[in-house]
Amino acid sequence: MRWALVKVCVAVTTMVVVAFAVPLGLVIKEMARDRAFSNAERQAAAIAPALSITTDRDQLERVVASAGSDDGMAVHIPASDGAKAVDIGRQRAAAKDIATTRSIGRASTTEVPGGSTLLQPTALSSGEIAVVEVYVPESEVSNGVGTAWAVLAAVGVALIVGSVAVADRLGVRMVQPAQRLVEGAHELGEGKLGARVPEEGPNELRLAAVAFNSMADQVVQLLANERELAADLSHRLRTPLTVLRLNTASLGDGPAAEQTRAAVAQLEREVDTIIRTAREAKPQTAAIGIGAGCDASEVVRERMDFWSALAEDEGRKVRVAGVDRPVRIPVARADLVAALDALLGNVFRHTPEGTAFAVDVHNSEDAVIVLVSDAGPGIVDPEAAMARGKGSGSDGSTGLGLDIVRRLAESTGGDVRIGSSVLGGTEVRIWIQLDGRAPVRRGHGGSVRRRRRGVGASRV
């Protein structure tokens, strides 16, 4: 916008300068020509009194010399009454032009090498017509014209430069509020809810800034309401959780009872975490500091120990690989636990009993990949499975399980990909970046396939 305004002002000012400067320059040129020929006419008029009195050559030469134009003036007297024609000074005009001026009886100009001549007819006492020739060099005709054109050009350039400066200032006045509005929109899009823009500039941009600030206030208010709603809904779970915890005390001893009590305790901790996160307005997968994180191998071993008891009851074969040595990742332990429980819960909920599954951890220099695969029937609609907050339509599916996994990966600069596993079912690949750089997109058959058939064990 700024440069467009400058270009428009340059174009308009240039047209105005040309429209006025060119005609003015031509007028100045014509005025210089008129001035030169007016001087020539005055010089010719100074000879006329002498010609009306005498035609003596010596006297006329003295008169021409006294006029100071002996080299640029000539007098042509025709022959009469037996007297010979007299020519004084240097003749530059053609004889026919002199004869034409004598015959028509009025002054005329003619072009000669190096300039022009003024031919002025003058009546003699004898009744004959003498012609006074005054030479006007080209330098005298154009005297001062070049300077005038230079002044006009300088004025034109000054006007153009001034218009550019004014247009640039006007452009800055309009562009700066627009730039601040764009920066504010980017900051708001990046999650900086305190981003606001000054309400200044042209009226239209000022109204846009007012609307943007109002929108940002509404966004903050809506998010605050959503956090309060999430906290309230989570708090409502405390009563049934308390009943479950009391009932688990009557289950006695045994692996199943211990697993049930551990699950209820973990559920209570998750609800407390949700409430605290909602109250503090911080995302559960927020980036953590340097040196923080967890050991992915340790977390995988722990969660597989938890789920292996249920797998044994359902006759599922379980395989774990890549957890024989520590693998540090920049992810909070609780977040990785929630992500693994969401994926493993999906395996148990959406595959038949006896379906095998596996968890593999692959470590490289810049990324860690956690693979959760199964031998189930696969996913019918991968795109719908990866849609945020959309369940499969079955009972117990909220559509948030894979969203938890995705937010965990994206908090490190990674992503989540869904494809076919070597076991014949679904493979969910969690790509966790170790250095925070954006991951290199690797397509599966030309595109990234993201899918799930239903999300269970989702964390709200």
UniProtKB/TrEMBL annotation:
Residues 172-224 form the HAMP domain. It is a multi-pass membrane protein. It is an enzyme of class 2 (transferase). Pfam families: HAMP, HATPase_c, HisKA. GO terms for molecular function: ATP binding; phosphoprotein phosphatase activity; phosphorelay sensor kinase activity. GO terms for cellular component: plasma membrane. The chain crosses the membrane at residues 148-167. InterPro entries: 2C_sensor_his_kinase (IPR050980), HAMP_dom (IPR003660), HATPase_C_sf (IPR036890), HATPase_dom (IPR003594), His_kinase_dom (IPR005467), HisK_dim/P_dom (IPR003661), HisK_dim/P_sf (IPR036097), Sig_transdc_His_kin-like_C (IPR004358). Signal peptide: none annotated. SMART domains: HAMP, HATPase_c, HisKA. This is Signal transduction histidine-protein kinase/phosphatase MprB. It comes from Streptomyces mirabilis.
